[in-house]
Amino acid sequence: MKFVYDFTEGNKDLKDLLGGKGANLAEMTRLGLPVPPGFTITTEACKVYLATGEEPAALRDEVSAHLAALEETMGKKLGQPDNPLLVSVRSGAKFSMPGMMDTVLNIGLSDASVEGLARQAGDERFAWDSYRRLIQMFGKTVLGVDGDLFEEALDAAKAAKKVTVDTDLDAEDLKKLVTAFKKIVEKETGRAFPQDPREQMDLAIRAVFESWNGERAKLYRRQERIPHDLGTAVNVCSMVFGNLGPDSGTGVAFTRDPASGQQGVYGDYLQNAQGEDVVAGIRNTVPLAELERIDKASYDQLLRIMEILENHYKDLCDIEFTIERGKLWMLQTRVGKRTAAAAFRIATQLVDQGLIDEAEALQRVTGAQLAQLMFPRFDENAEVKQVARGIAASPGAAVGKAVFDSYTAVKWSRSGEKVILVRRETNPDDLDGMIAAEGILTSRGGKTSHAAVVARGMGKTCVCGAEELEVDTKRRRMTVPGGQVVEEGDVISIDGSTGKVYLGEVPVVPSPVVEYFEGRMHPGAEDADELVEAVHRMMSFADRTRRLRVRANADNAEDALRARRFGAQGIGLCRTEHMFLGDRRELVERLILADTEEERDASLKALLPLQKQDFVELFEAMDGLPVTIRLLDPPLHEFLPDITELSVRVALAEARQEPHENELRLLQAVHRLHEQNPMLGLRGVRLGLVVPGLFAMQVRAIAEAAAERKAAQGDPRAEIMIPLVGTVQELEIVREEADRVIAEVEAATGTKLSLPIGTMIELPRAALTAGQIAEAAEFFSFGTNDLTQTVWGFSRDDVEASFFTAYLEKGIFGVSPFETIDKDGVGSLVKAAVAAGRATRPDLKLGVCGEHGGDPESVHFFHEAGLDYVSCSPFRIPVARLEAGRAAC
Ligand code: ADP
Ligand code: MG
Ligand code: MG
C-alpha cells in the first residue's frame, strides 16, 4: 500500500485517502495554481498508527523519498543551516473539523538554521519570529506543554518593552524570547527542544495522528455525527511566509458571502503575519477589498483564482492564502459552509450562471435548511445586547423571563407569563418546566444532551452548552461574562438557530419564507427578498421532479386550508378524536357509560350531526383533493375523567355525606376501563368492534357529509381509514358494516358515493400479513409512530425522557427512531408490507402518516420504498416537498 502522495499525484476525489485539505491542495496543484509544493500522508497510515501505536513500517522510507524529491524541487534541504527548507505539518480529515486538530508551522528551524533563514531572507527579525512561533506551536501541540506558559512569556516580553503588538518586538527581543521558550520546553518536558529537523517533522506527524483522538476532536465528531474511524491525513507543505514585512501577509477569502450568498469580495487580510494570526484574532484584520490598495497585482490574481475555483468546483469555495513579498500562494480551499439562506440563493445563482442544472441545485439544499428558514426570527435591526453564545440545539427564537427551576416555570407559565427555563443541564425531572417554557437555555452539554434532545423532540427553542454563563440555580440567578447578574424574572431572549443569548426582549419577526408559503408575500413582488425568490424556484424544481405526493395531517378546516397553501395534495390523516373533545366530551362520556341501547343510541344520535358538520367543512376546504379520515383511535379512558381526581371527589362527597351516585358510577366505569398499557389496549379497530354503533356513526357522518357536498356541487374525496388492524378479519367485519351504512346513505340521498376503505399498517402482524389484509383494504397508510413503538417495544410517550439520552450518548443510535425511520428494522417491515400488499392488489394506494412523513431522511426512504405519498403536519409540508424532489434526482 502506498502511504504518501505528492501534491501532483492526488485530486479532489481522493478525500477518503488524502483528507479534504490534501485532496484539494492536489486539485489546485493540478489546476496549475500557485500551491507551495508538498506531499500528503494518507488516512490509511493514520489508521495503522491509531490501531497499533506505531507508524506503518514502510512509512519512514516513503516519507524520506518524498522529502528528497521536495528538497530537489525547492533546491534546499530541510533545516539545512545555510539555506533551510521549512515545512508545515498540517492535519486534514475527510470532513473539515475546524480548529479541532493540530498544525505546526516552520518545521526545520533550529539554533543553526535560524541564522541561515535570517541571511537568506535578509531579515533577522523575521527569522527569530518564525523560530519562536515554531517552539511555541511545537511545544504546545507536539510536546504537550501548557500553551499559556508561552503566552505569558510573550506578554512579559511585550510588557518589558511597553508595546502591545508582537510586531513591535525586534530581533533582539525575539532572540531572548526564544531562549525563554526553550527553557519552558526543557523545564516542562525534561528535554531540550529537538534540533534535528527530521525528528521535528516525524514528531509533528505523529502528533497530528494523535490529535484525531483528542477530546475536542472526539466531541466535535460526536456532535457532527462524523464517524470515529476515518482517521486524518497529514500534509507536509513547504513554507511560504506572510510575516516577511509589509509586502507580505495572509488572509482568508470566500467566493461569495457565506452568510447571504451574495457575490462579491468577502474575506479578511492581515499584513505581515502568519496564517494562525488571522484565526487567533491576535491583531485586527482588514476587509479583503483593501488588499486592492495594498497589493493590486496579488489582489487581481486572487480574484482570478477565485473565479477559476468557483467555476471548477461549481460552488462557493473558501480559501486560505499567503502573500510572500508580493507573490501569492494558495494554501487551502474547500467547498465552503454556508447558512441556510445562502444555500438557497447560491444554488439558484449557480443555475442562472449555467454552472449546475436543477437536479444538482436540489442536492445543494436540504429540508433541514428550509425548516430553519421557516422559524420566526429575531429582528436583525433590533438593538440588543448579546451576552453569550452556546450551541444552537433546537431552532427558533424565544423570549421570556428567566426562571431557574421547573416548578417556577410551570407556575409562572400557568399565570400567563412567558418563561425561559435556565439550567446548568436538564434531566427528566425538568420535563414539566421544559414543556411550560418558551425556550430552554443550559450552560452545559452538547447537541446530544438531555436538553437538546428533548427540546428538538418537542420542537422547542433550545440553546445549550453556553459555557460563559454561570448558572446558580440555588440562588436563582446567572452571571453573564462581564459580571452582570440576571435574576429570576429578568427578560432574556435566546436564538436556537445561532445559539445566541441576549439580555432583554428582542422583537420577533415572522420568517419571510413562511409569509411566502402563506401567500402573503409573492416572489417577484417589490417587497419580496431574494431569499423568497430562491426558495420559490427551488420549490418548483422539487415539485417538477418529485414522484411522491405530499399530504397533510390536519383535523380541521383551518389547518386544511393552511396545508393547502403550503402545497398539500390532500389530507393523509384526519384524526377524529380531536373532534370528540371540548363540549362533546360529555356526549362521549355518556356513550361509554350507557347501560341501555336507548341511552347509547341517544348519544350517538347527538354526536352524528356534529361530526358530520366537521367533515362538511373539511371536504369544502380540501375540495377536489383526497381526505383520509381515521376512525376513532385512542383508548376510551382518554375521554373519561382522571382516576385520581375522581377518587378524591368521591371520597370527599362520601365524607361530607353528599349525594354522589353519578360520581361513583363514573368511578366504577373508569376502573373497569383502566388499563396498564393503554397503548396496547382497547383502542383503534378494537373499539369499533366492542362499542356498538360507534364506527357506524362515524362512517354515516362521513357519507352524509360527502353527499351534502356533492349536492352543493362540491368534489369531496373522502377515504375511510381503520386504525390498529392486526388481522384481516377485524377489517372485514368493520368493512361489512361500513359498506352497509354507505349503501343506506346512498339510497337515502340518491347520491352515488365513492368512499374507499383502507387501513393503517402500524402493528408488526399487520405488516407481516399485509398480503391478506390487502384483500379487504383499498389503501394502506403506514402508521410509523405506532409501528416503531411496537417493533422496538418502546413506549413513545416515555422513552425520550427516560433513557434515550443515554442511548444517544452511547451511540446505540445516532438519532431517535421516532424522529428518523429505522430503516433496518421498521423500514424492512414497511418494504415487505408494500411488496405483499401490491402482490395482492396491484393498484393498492400506499402512504405514510406520522412524524416520519416530514423527516428528510425518512422521506428519502419512503421514496425508495415506492410509496405514493407521505403525510405530515402542515408546517413540514414544504420540507417534505423539497426532500421528495431531492430523493427523485
Ligand atoms: P486548519 O485546518 O486549522 O485551518 P491549517 O493546516 O490550514 O490548519 O494551517 C493553519 C494556518 O497555517 C492556516 O492559516 C494556514 O494557511 C497556515 N499555513 C499552513 N501551512 C502553511 C505553509 N506551508 N506556509 C504558510 N502558511 C501555512
Ligand atoms: Mg486551514
Ligand atoms: Mg397509531
UniProtKB/TrEMBL annotation:
Keywords: ATP-binding, Kinase, Magnesium, Metal-binding, Nucleotide-binding, Pyruvate, Transferase. Its cofactor is Mg(2+). InterPro entries: ATP_grasp_subdomain_1, PEP-util_enz_mobile_dom, PEP_util_AS, PEP_util_C, Phosphohistidine_dom_sf, PPDK_AMP/ATP-bd, Pyruvate_phosphate_dikinase, Pyrv/PenolPyrv_kinase-like_dom. Residues 534-886 form the PEP-utilising enzyme C-terminal domain. SUPFAM superfamilies: Glutathione synthetase ATP-binding domain-like, Phosphoenolpyruvate/pyruvate domain, Phosphohistidine domain. Transmembrane segments: none annotated. Its EC number is 2.7.9.1. GO terms for molecular function: pyruvate, phosphate dikinase activity. Residues 59-284, 291-344 form the Pyruvate phosphate dikinase AMP/ATP-binding domain. Residues 417-499 form the PEP-utilising enzyme mobile domain. Belongs to the PEP-utilizing enzyme family. This is Pyruvate, phosphate dikinase.
